């Protein structure tokens, strides 16, 4: 367990780490054994093969000093700069604008830069006299006989433990970095741009001034919230149906389509509704609505998808 010098409150980040096996190591392993699995006799889709992690997986604890106001991203940056430069994670803006740092925090998809340590740290569980694992809320609890790990004692003054893993539903590139390319590909496939002829605005003397798409405030209000999607993938990570875009196009791609379908300027509404009305499209949605809970920008993803389903049905009627 890596530990930073402690003088006050501490927190332990328990990071699920993954280091991919190099291609040449894979080839060597295959060539060296006559029993090495070369290909599935049932066929393995390239996407599925790519999602299967091949490499070393382990869990690593980092205990560090905090004041409680830091975000998990702050802590990861401290660890990277001062303790372990090999720890890999992705981020860019640092304040909830780019969506690049979504990961699973205590199993919940969320943005690392918005997740406050004090909100996510959990006291470690200990085993009571009857063998049940209890959350330690009171250090003086008589029933507790032994801590499940050394964090309880090492982190006696601490806020507790935060478990970090890559975004669920995606292949892992390395440590906390998920491969979100399948999500981006699904979005690209559905034409994530305005399809419109537009209205040419002209100057008084008849010359083309600017290409303008006119819209009233009410028309803008219909889809404006959806334009705030930062394509973080938290909704995909929370969705029990989504698994890399093969069985289900995923909530992020559907939200992107809803943004254009609800836009009065877009002229491809029917084409868009047709494109999502497929077995791996809107028909695969089970309306679990776990996606709504995790959206960091507050889009009610499940409700928006439900509205899309209604529009698809209306078109059929
Ligand atoms: S809808 Fe919300 S959770 Fe899903 S990708 Fe967009 S911002 Fe992220
Ligand atoms: S780093 Fe950009 S959203 Fe978190």
Can you describe this structure?
- This protein is an alpha+beta fold.
- It folds into 2 domains: 134 residues, Beta-grasp domain (Ubiquitin-like (UB roll), Roll); 137 residues, Fumarate Reductase Iron-sulfur Protein, Chain B, domain 2 (Orthogonal Bundle), CATH 1.10.1060.10.
- It has 12 helices and 13 strands.
- The strands form 4 sheets. Strands 1-3-2-9-4-5 form a 6-stranded mixed β-sheet.
- A hairpin with a 2-residue loop joins strand 10 and strand 11.
- Helix 6 runs parallel beside helix 9, helix 9 runs antiparallel to helix 10 and helix 9 packs across helix 12.
- The longest helix has 16 residues.
- It binds iron/sulfur cluster and FE2/S2 (inorganic) cluster.
- The site of FE2/S2 (inorganic) cluster has 12 residues, from loops.
- Keywords: 2Fe-2S, 3Fe-4S, 4Fe-4S, Iron, Iron-sulfur, Metal-binding, Oxidoreductase, Tricarboxylic acid cycle.
Termini Cα gap = 62 Å
**H/E topology pattern:** EEHHEHEEHEEEHEEEHEEHHHHHH
Give a short account of the largest sheet. Answer: 6 strands, mixed
Rg, Cα atoms, Å = 24 Å
CATH level-four homologous superfamily name of the largest domain? Alpha-helical ferredoxin
The number of helices is: 12
Q: Could you say how many structural domains there are in total?
A: 2
Write out the strand line-up for the largest beta sheet, numbering strands in chain order: 1-3-2-9-4-5
Q: Mean pLDDT score, rounded?
A: 84
The tally of beta strands, per DSSP, is: 13
User: What level of helicity do the residues show?
Assistant: 25-40%
Poorly predicted residue ranges: 32-44, 138-155
If classified by CATH, what would the architecture of the largest domain be? Orthogonal Bundle
CATH fold type of the largest domain: Fumarate Reductase Iron-sulfur Protein, Chain B, domain 2
CATH class label of the largest domain: Mainly Alpha
């Amino acid at each position: 367990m890596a530990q930073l010098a402690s003088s006050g409150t501490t927190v332990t980040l328990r990071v699920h780490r993954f280091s991919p096996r190099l291609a040449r190591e894979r080839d060597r392993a295959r060539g060296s054994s006559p029993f090495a699995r070369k290909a599935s006799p049932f066929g393995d889709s390239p996407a599925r093969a790519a999602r299967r992690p091949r490499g070393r997986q382990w869990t690593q604890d980092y205990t560090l000093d905090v004041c409680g106001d830091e975000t998990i991203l702050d802590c990861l940056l401290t660890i990277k700069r001062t303790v372990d430069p090999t720890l890999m994670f992705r981020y860019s803006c640092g304040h909830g604008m780019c969506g690049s740092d979504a990961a699973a925090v205590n199993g919940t998809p969320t943005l690392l830069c918005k997740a406050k340590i004090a909100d996510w740290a959990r006291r470690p569980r200990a085993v009571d006299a009857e063998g049940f694992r209890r959350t330690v809320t009171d250090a003086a609890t008589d029933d507790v006989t032994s801590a499940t790990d050394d964090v309880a004692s090492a982190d006696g003054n601490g806020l507790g433990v935060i478990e970090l893993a890559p975004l669920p539903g995606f292949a892992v590139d390395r440590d906390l970095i998920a491969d979100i390319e399948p999500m981006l590909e699904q979005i690209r496939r559905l034409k994530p741009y305005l399809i419109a002829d537009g209205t040419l605005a002209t100057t008084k003397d008849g010359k083309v001034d600017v290409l303008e798409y006119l819209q009233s405030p009410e028309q803008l209000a219909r889809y404006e919230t959806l334009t705030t999607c930062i394509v973080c993938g938290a909704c995909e990570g929370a969705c029990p149906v989504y698994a890399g875009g093969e069985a289900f196009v995923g909530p992020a791609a559907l939200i992107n389509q809803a943004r254009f379908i609800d836009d009065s300027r877009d002229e491809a509404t029917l084409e868009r509704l047709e494109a999502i009305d497929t077995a791996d499209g809107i028909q695969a949605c089970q309306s679990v609505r776990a996606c709504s809970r995790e959206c960091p920008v507050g889009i009610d993803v499940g409700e928006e998808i439900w509205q899309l389903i209604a529009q698809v049905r209306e078109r059929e009627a």
